[in-house]
Design goal:
The chain is of the alpha+beta class. It has helices at residues 25-34, 45-54, 56-64, 74-93, 101-126, 160-177, 190-193, 198-207, and strands at residues 3-5, 71-72, 132-141, 147-155. Helix content is 51%, strand content 12%. This is IZUMO family member 4.
Length: 208
């Protein structure tokens, strides 16, 4: 498994949801909300559907249930957004639906979107396993839509020379990083770095 070192240079903010960070989100969902009253024969579907659309972003963050920070690459965000907008546009192309059909379809699209975001974030992390040593990729924070990045350590090294370079790169990274680390990371403080092995570093980070 890859050792994931997450450095997210962002500030705390209200959760907005990953899709909310896409450039077309406001335009698209404004259209969806303003036309929801034309999509169902039953008047009771209108407030239910409106609430689903209004709470889409916050509900997304609640449903992600990730053990890692919600950081998604721009490429994968575009892919998720394209899939969601396509489903939504198809739904809105119909005229008026029978009672309960429209809000149920919105829920289905919402759940599909959550799964797409979860998979996109996890896939980017798992890509680290196919690398050797320290690797960093640019992301967007789903919490507040700011630019961020993820730094990880891949174990896919094939030679002793690669391993030596990877371990040295990890130790150098930790040495540069220690000023940003919580005091709880005593095992990563400068006095301990001289004799720090890859296994020790992994165990230390795993405990915190």
């Amino acid at each position: 498994m890859a050792l994931l070192l997450c450095l997210v240079g962002v500030t705390a903010a209200l959760a907005q949801g990953c899709l909310h960070c896409h450039s077309k989100f406001s335009e698209k969902f404004s259209f969806y909300r303003h036309h929801v009253n034309l999509k169902s024969w039953w008047v009771g579907d209108i407030p239910v559907s409106g609430a689903l659309l209004t709470d889409w972003s916050d509900d997304t963050m609640k449903e992600l249930h990730l053990a890692i920070p919600a950081e998604i690459t721009r490429e994968k965000l575009d892919q998720v957004a394209t899939a969601v907008y396509q489903r939504m546009d198809q739904l809105y192309q119909g005229k008026m639906y029978f009672p309960e059909y429209f809000p149920n379809e919105l829920r289905n699209i919402f759940r599909e979107q959550v799964h797409l975001i979860q998979n996109a974030i996890i896939e980017s992390r798992l890509d680290c396993q196919r690398r050797c040593g320290i690797f960093q990729y640019e992301t967007i924070s789903c919490n507040n839509c700011t630019d961020s990045h993820v730094t990880c350590f891949g174990y896919n090294c094939e030679s002793s020379e690669q391993w030596e370079s990877a371990v040295q790169g990890l130790l150098n990274y930790i040495n540069n990083w220690h000023n940003l680390v919580s005091p709880a990371f005593r095992c990563l403080e400068p006095p301990h770095l001289a004799n720090l092995t890859l296994e020790d570093a992994a165990e230390c980070l795993k405990q915190h």
